[in-house]
Each structure stands twice: as C-alpha cells, then as structure tokens.
C-alpha cells in the first residue's frame, strides 16, 4: 500500500507536471497562432501597399508616355512650321526688294509691337526726296492706320483701309496709299 501511495503521488505529480506542460504548450501554440495572424496581416497590408504603388507607377508611366507623345507631336509640328517659314523666307526678301523698288518705299519698325511704318519717296514731282509715311497697326483682326504724314483725305484713307481689311492684299493697299499721297501733294 505504501508503494501504491507513492506510485499514486508520483502519478499525481506526473499528471500535474504534464498538465503544466500541456497548459504551457497551449499558451505557446496560442501565442504562435497570434503571431502568425499578425504576420499574415502585415504581409497582407504590405502586399496591398505594393499593389497600390504598382498601379500608381503604371498610371504615371502611361501619363509620361502620353506626355512624351504630345511633346514629340508638337516638336514635329514646330519643325514643320519652321521649315515652311524657311521656305517662305527665301521668297520674302526678293519680294520685299521688288515692292520697295517698284513703289519707292521702305518698311520700318514703328517702335511698338504690331506696328509698321511705311515711308514713300518720289511722291512729289518737285522734290523726289520728300517723304510721305504712315503707320499701320496690325494688332487687331482689322488693320488701322494710326499716323499719316502729310495728311490725306479721310475718305480716301478709309477706302484704302477698308479694301485692305476686306481682301488682305497688302500690295494693293500700298499702291492705294501711294496714289493717295501723290494725289494729296498735287
């Protein structure tokens, strides 16, 4: 019986030890499960952040590509326009020389943006060096003459400017103004 009491105590002690170990093991498993859930939550959060950033990066890359395409198109259009201006420039100087020689005039800047000064000579038969000039304001859709020297009849001036604004023919306008100056000086 003594042995049986000792055996029972030993078994009881073993049961208590195993109970404590089982409880400790259960706590460890519970703790590890909580850590696993935390890690899974962190992984999920990081994955979502990565996916969001990847979408943002893709959107920015497509915006960059679209912007680069627009820039390329604009550069091409500017180059085409520059080419057209260069091609026209070859004709401008000879044409300007022709008009300046044919109409005995010169074209100058008037000191203000969108204004040109046209100076005629050979308008007075008594003094070929006498100058007659006017300033043309080209800022608006309709052109207008802002200064004239010597004065010419307002109806003649208005008729010349109206014709210019209707047909946009600068050569005809210059002829009209020259005739107005010649007629006004006589």
Structural topology:
Layout: H1 2-102, E1 105-109, E2 115-120, E3 132-137, E4 144-149, H2 154-167, H3 170-185
Antiparallel strand pairs: 1-2, 2-3, 3-4
Range of strand content: 5-15%
Order of helices and strands: HEEEEHH
Major sheet strand order: 1-2-3-4
What helical percentage do the residues reach?
Answer: over 70%
What is the oligomer described by this structure?
A: single chain
| Low-confidence blocks of residues | none
Q: Please outline the major beta sheet.
A: 4 strands, antiparallel
Question: How would you characterize the overall build of this protein?
Answer:
With 186 residues, this protein is α+β, with helices and mostly antiparallel strands. The protein is 70% helix and 12% strand. The chain is built from three helices and four strands; from the N terminus they run H-E-E-E-E-H-H. The chain has helices at 2-102, 154-167, 170-185, and strands at residues 105-109, 115-120, 132-137, 144-149. It has a four-stranded antiparallel sheet. A hairpin with a 5-residue loop joins strand 1 (105-109) and strand 2 (115-120). Helix 2 runs antiparallel to helix 3 (170-185). The longest helix is centred in the N-terminal third of the chain and has 101 residues, at 2-102.
């Amino acid at each position: 019986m003594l042995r049986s009491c000792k055996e029972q105590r030993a078994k009881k002690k073993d049961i208590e030890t195993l109970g404590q170990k089982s409880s400790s093991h259960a706590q460890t498993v519970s703790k590890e499960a909580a850590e696993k859930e935390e890690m899974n939550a962190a992984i999920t959060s990081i994955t979502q952040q990565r996916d969001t950033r990847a979408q943002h990066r893709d959107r920015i890359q497509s915006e960059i590509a679209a912007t680069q395409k627009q820039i390329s198109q604009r550069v091409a259009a500017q180059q085409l326009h520059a080419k057209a201006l260069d091609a026209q420039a070859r004709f401008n100087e000879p044409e300007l020389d022709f008009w300046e020689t044919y109409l005995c005039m010169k074209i100058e800047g008037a000191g203000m943006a969108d204004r040109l000064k046209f100076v005629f000579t050979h308008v007075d038969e008594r003094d070929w060096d006498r100058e007659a000039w006017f300033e043309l304001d080209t800022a608006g859709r309709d052109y207008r003459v802002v200064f004239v020297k010597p004065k010419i009849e307002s109806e003649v001036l208005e008729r010349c400017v109206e014709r210019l604004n209707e047909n946009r023919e600068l050569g005809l306008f210059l002829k009209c103004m020259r005739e107005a100056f010649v007629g006004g000086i006589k």
